[in-house]
Amino acid sequence: MTTNEENTNSPSLDRRDFITASVGAALLVAMGGFPASVRAAAALALPPLPYPDNALEPVISANTIGFHHGKHHKTYFDNLNKLVTGTEFADMSIENIILASAGRPEQMAIFNNAAQAWNHTFYWRSLKKGGGGEPPAALRQRIDASFGSLDACRKELATAATTQFGSGWAWLVLDGDKLKVVKTGNAELPLTQGMKPLLTIDVWEHAYYLDYQNRRADYVNAVLDKLINWGFAADNLGT
Ligand code: FE
Predict the structure, then answer these.
(1) Most C-beta atoms within 10 A of its C-beta, which of 14, 86, 120, 130?
(2) Which pLDDT does position 32 carry in this prediction?
(3) Ligand 1: distance of its center to the CA of 145 in Å?
(4) Separation of CA 137 and ligand 1 centre (Å)
(5) pTM of structure
(6) What residue numbers bound the domain in which 64 lies?
């Protein structure tokens, strides 16, 4: 049920704006604060879920999580390992593979699988049982300063997630000193734009179709109400 249809990305995320390698390197340094569980993906091995596969029920079923992690996410890692064998990417961390392959049409398969492998590891940690609710105080202050209110931030995330045309992702990011919501198509991600991801919502159909069929908005709103992990975003922000 995955799709690869054409999509309309946010204009701000056009490949024309791809950052230079030096900016990418600086971003990787800035990402030193990421949890070890995310950095572990650098070994190009599928990380285990940070919770049992039924932990997110009833919002996301164990059946969906089982396929999503055990089949879709695993396949991105399996493909990536095959694709990088014997190439310039073979000994790179997953983040460096993403930055080194981005914007190179001849490396699109490597970029897509590396980015999707990374995005999903980040997505699992963007959710938790008993999520939603109030962000930690320091993050809440940054949200209020950037969006005006938590409700406005939440609405922007919901709008980005429901209006992304076709497959993709909605993200809360740090861009400069401001928090922003962006959406990306297919495997694209804010790392290649010099923005620091704080949390994400997967809006590929495989993320919700078994549980919600075509009702993407119901999935997105339930995730924001009950699963979104503001603490993970606060950790990534370094607050
Ligand atoms: Fe997915």
Answers:
(1) 120
(2) 39
(3) 31
(4) 30
(5) 0.83
(6) 13-125
pLDDT digits (tens, 9 = 90+) for 163-191: 999 999 999 999 999 999 999 999 999 99
Q: Which pLDDT belongs to residue 239?
A: 62
197 has which bridge partners? 173
Structure tokens at 178: 């401001």
3 state SS of 184: strand
Average pLDDT of the segment spanning 16-23: 40
Domain count, the chain: 2
What residues have CB less than 8 Å from 34, skipping those under 6 apart? 236
Average pLDDT over residues 50-67: 98
The CATH number assigned to the domain holding 219 equals: 3.55.40.20
Q: Tell me if 105 is assigned to some domain.
A: yes
Residue 33 has pLDDT above 60, yes or no: no
Ligand 1 centre from 202 Cα, in Å?
6
Q: How many CA atoms lie within 13 A of 142 on its CB side?
A: 21
What's the CA-to-centroid distance between 120 and ligand 1, angstroms?
6
On the 0-12 / 13-18 / 19+ scale of CB atoms within 10 A, 169 is: buried
Query: Are residues 190 and 196 in contact, defined by beta-carbon separation less than 8 angstroms?
Result: yes
Q: Which of 148, 76, 83 is nearest to 116 (CA)?
A: 76
Instruction: Please work out, in degrees rounded to the nearest 5, the angle formed at the alpha carbon of residue 21 by the alpha carbons of 73 and 164.
Output: 45
User: Distance between CA atoms of 27 and 9, rounded to whole angstroms?
Assistant: 22
Domain final position from 70, 90, 125: 125
